[in-house]
From TrEMBL:
Keyword terms: Cell membrane, Ion transport, Iron, Membrane, Metal-binding, Transmembrane, Transmembrane helix, Transport
Gene Ontology molecular function, alphabetical: iron ion transmembrane transporter activity; metal ion binding; peptide hormone binding
PANTHER family: SOLUTE CARRIER FAMILY 40 MEMBER (PTHR11660), SOLUTE CARRIER FAMILY 40 MEMBER 1 (PTHR11660:SF47)
Primary role: May be involved in iron transport and iron homeostasis.
Protein name: Solute carrier family 40 member
Major localisation: membrane
Signal peptide: none
One GO CC term on file: basolateral plasma membrane
Membership in a protein family: Belongs to the ferroportin (FP) (TC 2.A.100) family. SLC40A subfamily.
Stretches that traverse the bilayer: 20-46, 58-79, 85-109, 269-295, 301-324, 336-355, 418-437, 458-481, 487-507
Pfam families: FPN1
């Protein structure tokens, strides 16, 4: 259900707002900004509450929000002509704001679900077996990618051959059913794994002391982790004894925010996490921006769903590559190889910018769309055509923000999408790069799982999500400043530059952790790099 919504919401927003990328960029900006500000607080909430309560609450909030958004969108699609006439269209604008707000709540709940299940539950279920943890991470990602194939295909066909309203109804109904099934499955897993129940904020200090005793008898912990442990044990008892006043309660979220970011910076895998975050500063992923851009180039919902399915297949190949490379070369080297593979594939996207059919035209002002829509007398909700149902189900109308003259009904619009070399190379590069991307993502995910102590798993991963969304936020701001498809080629070049910087950061982390052994690819590390290479750890941060 979450994958269906992720695919459909961007197409809905592009369709409703005059086929421009501006509203999808605003939606992405709100989502990214919210996780950036609240990521540490969400992670802290995950740490301080029981695992079952966190999982169940976030699941119910997430699915309920998606269902409500679907119902509101159905009403908009049914009555948008009437809504446009009320209060000069500002009532429809209010509906858009409501949809984006509720969808943002759904995304925050989804973030909490991902932290607790994929960063905490899975580590507890795997126990001390790191090979099992790697296999479970890869399996979860394969399931995720399979849903990426099936969900967009189903919704894309429904919206293309049916109508957007039917698509909204289908997504709402599916989320209602899936919420019940997921709730039951979570309960089953919780019952079958008794160790999941052994967690509470009160036991945090004893957990840390046990971890210290165990690690000191075995091996030295990473310097960054040691600092966190000492801080926690020193600061835990005074917090218990003090009476919490009103001012302290107001300041608590800000203190949590600050402490979370400081703790994240002190992690031995800080540079690896930053490298992953830099990959989010890109328009070369199947998010609402890329989906919206493809939509402006004349690709239907059906074709888009097939492309997303192809990207999911290469994502599954990436999970297979991750498990194989980890066994052969070790965890850290796997991330290095994956980064090189991803960057090599993205060269195709750079080439596509200069090929025939590319809409890139830097003579067109990137601010023309903003000035036309926000500073003229027209209200926000501008509908491109009085025939709402036909826009979505048939070919694409005039979507290039005034760069093409023909009207929606003009049959001579068909020659426009003839040069397919540029679009084909772009999506070939994006789809092929998913192999390296998902293998790299799994590498950094496991590095965080292996090197972050249990009592801080939530807050550190919450800050990692915030860091990811910070770069994601920058990419949405970039699109808001240049929303026309003519400027998309420039965004592609900027995106590839940030991907390169991210992999350079990871290379620096790998070099510090393994030193001269970095290019010796013969035996995988049985344990996390920080444990097996103490000299590298102390210089990592």
């Amino acid at each position: 259900g979450d994958r269906m919504w992720h695919f459909a919401v961007s197409v809905f927003l592009v369709e409703l707002y005059g086929n421009s990328l501006l509203l999808t960029a605003v939606y992405g900006l709100v989502v990214a900004g919210s996780v950036l500000l609240l990521g540490a607080l969400i992670g802290d909430w995950v740490d301080k509450n029981s695992r079952l309560k966190v999982a169940q609450t976030s699941l119910v909030v997430q699915n309920s929000s998606v269902i409500l958004c679907g119902v509101i969108l159905m009403i908009i699609f049914l009555f948008k002509t009437q809504l446009l006439t009320l209060y000069h269209g500002w009532l429809l604008t209010l509906c858009y704001i409501l949809v984006i707000t509720i969808a943002n709540i759904a995304n925050l709940a989804s973030t909490a679900t991902a932290i607790t299940i994929q960063r905490d539950w899975i580590v507890v279920v795997a126990g001390e077996d790191r090979s099992k943890l790697a296999d479970m991470n890869a399996t979860i990602r394969r399931i995720d990618q399979l849903t990426n194939i099936l969900a967009p295909m189903a919704v894309g066909q429904i919206m293309t051959f049916g109508s957007p309203m039917i698509g909204c109804g289908f997504i709402s109904g599916w989320n209602l059913m899936s919420m019940c099934v997921e709730y039951l499955l979570l309960w089953k897993v919780y019952q079958k794994t008794p160790t999941l129940a052994h967690k509470s904020a009160k036991v945090e200090a004893s957990e840390l002391k046990q971890l210290n005793v165990k690690k000191e008898s075995d091996m030295k912990p990473a310097e960054g982790v040691q600092l966190i442990i000492e801080k926690d044990i020193a600061g835990f008892e005074p917090q218990e004894e003090k009476e919490v006043g009103c001012a302290a309660r107001i300041a608590e979220p800000f203190i949590t925010f600050r402490d979370g970011w400081v703790a994240y910076y002190n992690q031995p895998v800080f540079l690896a996490g930053m490298g992953l975050a830099f990959l989010y500063m890109t328009v070369l992923g199947f998010d609402c921006i890329t989906t919206g851009y493809a939509y402006t180039q004349g690709l239907s919902g059906s074709v888009l769903s097939l492309l997303m399915g192809a990207s999911a297949v290469t994502g599954i190949m990436g999970t297979v590559a991750f498990t194989w490379l980890r066994r052969k070369c070790g965890l850290i080297r796997t991330g290095l190889i994956s980064g090189v593979a991803q960057f090599a594939c993205l060269i195709l996207c750079v080439i596509s910018v200069f090929m025939p059919g590319s809409p890139m035209d830097l003579t067109v002002s990137p601010f023309a769309d903003i000035s036309a829509r926000l500073f003229e007398n027209q209200p926000l909700p501008t509908i491109a055509s009085p025939e709402p149902e036909m826009i979505f189900a048939t070919g694409m109308p005039n979507l290039l923000n005034g760069s093409i003259a023909p009207a929606n009904s003009d049959p001579e619009m068909s020659p426009e999408p003839v040069p397919l070399i540029s679009v084909s190379l772009l999506f070939a590069g994006v789809i092929a790069a998913r192999v390296g991307l998902w293998s790299f993502d799994l590498t950094v995910t496991q590095l965080l799982q292996e090197n972050v102590i249990e009592s801080e798993r939530g807050i550190i991963n919450g800050v990692q999500n915030s860091m990811n969304y910070l770069l994601d936020l920058l990419h949405f701001i970039m699109v808001i400043l240049a929303p026309n498809p003519e400027a998309f080629g420039l965004l592609v070049l900027i995106s590839v530059s940030f991907v390169a910087m991210g992999h350079i950061m990871y290379f620096r982390f790998a070099q510090k952790s393994l030193g001269k052994q970095l290019f010796v690819c013969h035996t995988p590390d049985p344990k996390a790099a920080p444990d097996s290479s103490p000299p590298g750890n102390t210089s990592t941060v």
